[in-house]
Amino acid sequence: MHLAVVGTGYVGLVSAACFAELGHTVIGVDIDEAKVKKLKKGECTIYEPGLEELLKRGLKTGHLSFTTDLAEALPLVTVVFSAVATPPNKDFSADLKAVFTVAEEVARNVDHDLVFVNKSTVPVGTGSKCEEKIKEILRERGVEYHIPVISNPEFLREGCAVQDTLQPDRIVVGINGDKWATELIDELYQPLTRVGKPVLHMQRESAEIVKYASNAFLATKISFINMLSELCEETGGNIRDIANGLGLDDRIGPRFLHAGIGYGGSCFPKDVKALIALSKETGIPLPIVKATHEVNTRQRMRFFQKLLDVLPDKANVAIWGLSFKPKTDDMREAPSLDLIPMLKKAGHTVRAHDPVAMGNAKKMEPDIEYVNSPMEAAKEADAVIVLTEWDAFRGVDLNELKGVMRGKHLFDGRNIYEPEEVRGAGLQYHGIGVS
Ligand SMILES: NC(=O)c1ccc[n+]([C@@H]2O[C@H](COP(=O)([O-])OP(=O)(O)OC[C@H]3O[C@@H](n4cnc5c(N)ncnc54)[C@H](O)[C@@H]3O)[C@@H](O)[C@H]2O)c1
pTM score > 0.85 for this model? Predict the structure, then answer.
């Protein structure tokens, strides 16, 4: 099948490369000329394990190509995926400008029937709005094409996005009763359904809500354990034991019960915020979602304040990990972006290391020093703070670390070390929900 994927970011590029891998002919479209230029040469524009290989293979077989011109791509395709960003506005609502721009551009340039698929995370009702906009433009043009709008939200996780796309837990498809669109989408996903991956058909509105429900639920699990970590710190409990005691109940499950400095990234914070905005807009109270956001903000700031409280004047602080989670270079809503300005404002010097995100971090925080190893960052540091649980940090020699540091504070924002081991090396351990 011939398709276009508009927006070649973390979701669009992975989707385009995976659809090409599954045998479809895909044209990736992006307004960012520099990005498209690189992609055409087979240079991956994001860090995502396994992606570059698929990109190169897709280009070589001719199943994958890229353009900046959506109008040029349209005559060739029967399905257009929109995978543009939907970042939070100041009032927490999702910014849908890019989604509507793509829908309008399709309507202005299309010359045949096609299916418009929203892969971006969008508030319930956005599919209807896209459909109305498309119909309005077609009416203005005096043409009649059948352009059903489908919701097909994406559930991939950065860091294992290729695997998640090729082996999804489920594929959610929201269609409001269009037989042709249903058949096309089913055909498109046939390489996955053939090997047993389930497609869930539902109302478009349900599909739009499922995506927010998934992210809000996972974020709530994180905030729930983080909320209890504060109670542990006050009472002497150990949050790891609480998480084990909870998670081994198979009605609850152990995942997303790892206490830390809270969730970040391009999805959980923005999607939780978008639900809060939707609650205001619809008047439907969503108190658990609001509490999830509040706990997350408190958790991050509480930990950072503890660090600021122990630092001497003009301290050296080493930051280990800049991306919002391991195995990605994505810096959106990363804790490091909150902490670095706080440290600089307080007059401290920051030296940071991250295995893959330093390039992106430098664009956002150019005034700190970036170095090539965790030990180099820790040299003469009064405190080391772990913000991302990269595997490379788990295995460091704590005695060597003590040897290179000036001070002795190890702030473990991801609870990756055993407190006793850290103390055994002569360092002072500051974890989350553990004493
Ligand atoms: N990143 C994730 O892990 C993830 C997972 C699931 C769902 N999502 C959702 O998928 C959507 C995309 O997220 P992302 O992280 O890939 O965003 P991104 O910012 O990485 O990529 C968006 C791309 O769209 C391009 N773009 C913007 N306007 C355009 C236009 N008019 N025409 C063509 N290209 C345009 C940008 O240049 C950029 O390359 C969001 O709604 C997000 O919530 C993201």
Answer: yes
Residue nearest to atom 27 of ligand 1 (CA): 84
Within a domain: 266: yes
Residue 329, ligand 1, Cβ within 6 A: no
Q: Is 323 in the pocket of ligand 1 (CB under 6 A)?
A: no
CA nearest neighbour of 428 among 393, 387, 384: 384
Question: How does pLDDT run along the chain (435 residues), one tens digit per residue?
Answer: 999 999 999 999 999 999 999 999 999 999 999 999 999 999 999 999 999 999 999 999 999 999 999 999 999 999 999 999 999 999 999 999 999 999 999 999 999 999 999 999 999 999 999 999 999 999 999 999 999 999 999 999 999 999 999 999 999 999 999 999 999 999 999 999 999 999 999 999 999 999 999 999 999 999 999 999 999 999 999 999 999 999 999 999 999 999 999 999 989 999 999 999 999 999 999 999 999 999 999 999 999 999 999 999 999 999 999 999 999 999 999 999 999 999 999 999 999 999 999 999 999 999 999 999 999 999 999 999 999 999 999 999 999 999 999 999 999 999 999 999 999 999 999 999 998
| Residue 2: count of CB within 10 angstroms of its CB | 14
78 in the same domain as 153: yes
- Give the number of domains in the chain: 2
Q: Report if residue 165 sits inside a domain.
A: yes
Cβ of 12 below 6 Å from ligand 1: yes
Domain that holds residue 74: 2-202
Instruction: Give the residue numbers marked as catalytic.
Output: 267
Instruction: Give the whole-angstrom CA distance, residue 138 versus residue 135.
Output: 5
The response to whether residue 32 sits with its C-beta less than 6 Å from ligand 1 reads yes
Please name the residue whose Cα sits nearest to atom 39 of ligand 1.
Answer: 9
Compute the distance from residue 120 Cα to the ligand 1 centre, in Å: 7
The rounded Cα 233 to chain-centroid distance in angstroms is: 29
| Backbone phi, psi, residue 94, to 5° | -80, 135
Shortest CA distance to 99 belongs to which of 114, 116, 112, 113? 116
